[in-house]
Specification:
Structural class: alpha+beta
Largest sheet: 5 strands, antiparallel
Strand content: 25-35%
Radius of gyration: 21 Å
Shape: globular
Number of helices: 7
Helix content: 10-25%
């Protein structure tokens, strides 16, 4: 969850900071439909989608073009013309962290790519303001991505970007090929889609004694519980410091949800947490926490306490009986 831990040095023997190691967790995305165009002989009487398939394709093409240009220049202002919400908060920080990456990773990141094998998930007009595009990257044929586009300031911008390496659940569609959007504030069993970020953060903060207790077992849940247990029992910096996690509001609280073909709900949600690394009192007169390269790039300095902020996103499958988080992805966005 938070691998960017500082190390401890004795004050009389200060050394350069160690580089942080990024942790990537697999994401699961929803399925798509071919288009949102009207079906049947009487097209005028058929319901309309939030956008037409042609419009969705044009929006995705424009995002792809601008995204490539912005990535090459690490231009957050340019990226903001086509991107917003939770994912933009994450990507701005990614640009800051770029210089801390190995050269091979930097070259791969700025290489232009295209979204291929696209399918479009378009809800009925009047039920949502957003649509989604599922695709594969020309740079990564094994995984697929779900791009969620919502209207921000009158313009469609990409607000969530979720990768998957497994078969996603298929969305429920009507006879016109339109998807069924679900109110993200409506509970499906124990949780509403908008509740899931807080439930996940509870796993890190308490090991799942509060909201997280009702989550079904899954790889991301098990990993979060392990992170809490290790931080609680071992601390960090060879036991010289404590590590604690705290829930935080996401940069953008917007969640999205779709009815799936099997009657469940696929939830796409934002999440955030804070990590505090504190040198134990008995060491404070003779040692200091030294930030990693990532922490230094984000503003952290040597001292007794380093605070890291993480913004993220995730997916979950909800039914009346179960809430299973299938994937999470976090970006280190601030440190002090």
């Amino acid at each position: 969850m938070s691998p960017h831990s500082p190390r401890v040095v004795r004050l009389t023997r200060l050394k350069p900071a160690l580089a942080g190691v990024a942790l990537a967790l697999t994401l699961t995305a929803c399925g798509g439909t071919d288009d949102g165009k009207a079906a049947g002989a009487d097209a005028d009487a058929a319901p309309q989608g939030v956008v037409t398939r042609a419009a969705a394709e044009k929006i995705a093409d424009h995002y792809q073009e601008v995204n490539n240009k912005a990535n090459a220049a690490r231009d957050a202002k340019l990226l903001a013309t086509v991107e917003a919400g939770q994912v933009h908060a994450m990507d701005k920080a990614t640009y800051t962290l770029f210089e801390t990456w190995p050269e091979k990773q930097q070259k791969a990141y700025v290489k232009p790519f295209t979204y291929e094998d696209r399918s479009y998930v378009i809800p009925r007009k009047g039920t949502a303001t957003w649509f989604a595009v599922q695709a594969r990257s020309s740079e990564d044929k094994d995984n697929s991505v779900l791009l969620v586009f919502d209207k921000v300031g009158g313009t469609y911008k990409m607000v969530l970007s979720l990768w998957t390496d497994e078969e996603p659940p298929k969305p429920a569609v009507d006879r016109h090929g339109l998807a069924e959007a679900v109110d993200p504030a409506a509970k499906v069993g124990r949780f509403a889609p908008s509740d899931l970020g807080a439930a996940y953060a509870d796993l890190l903060a308490t090991g799942g004694t509060k909201e997280g207790k009702a989550l079904a077992s899954s790889a991301p849940v098990t990993e979060a519980e392990k992170t809490f247990q290790e931080a609680d029992t071992k601390g960090t910096a060879d036991g010289m410091a404590t590590k604690m996690f705290f829930p935080e509001p996401p940069a953008d609280p917007s969640a999205y949800a779709l009815r799936t073909a099997d009657g469940g709900v696929l939830a796409l949600f934002p999440a955030a947490h804070k990590q505090e690394t504190l040198l134990k009192e008995r060491y404070r007169s003779s040692a200091s926490l030294v930030p990693s390269d990532e922490q230094s790039a984000l503003g952290a300095i040597r001292g007794d306490l380093i605070t890291d902020m993480f913004q993220g996103q995730g997916t979950a499958v909800l039914t009346p009986k179960s809430a299973r988080i299938t994937a999470v992805d976090f970006t280190h966005v601030d440190a002090k």
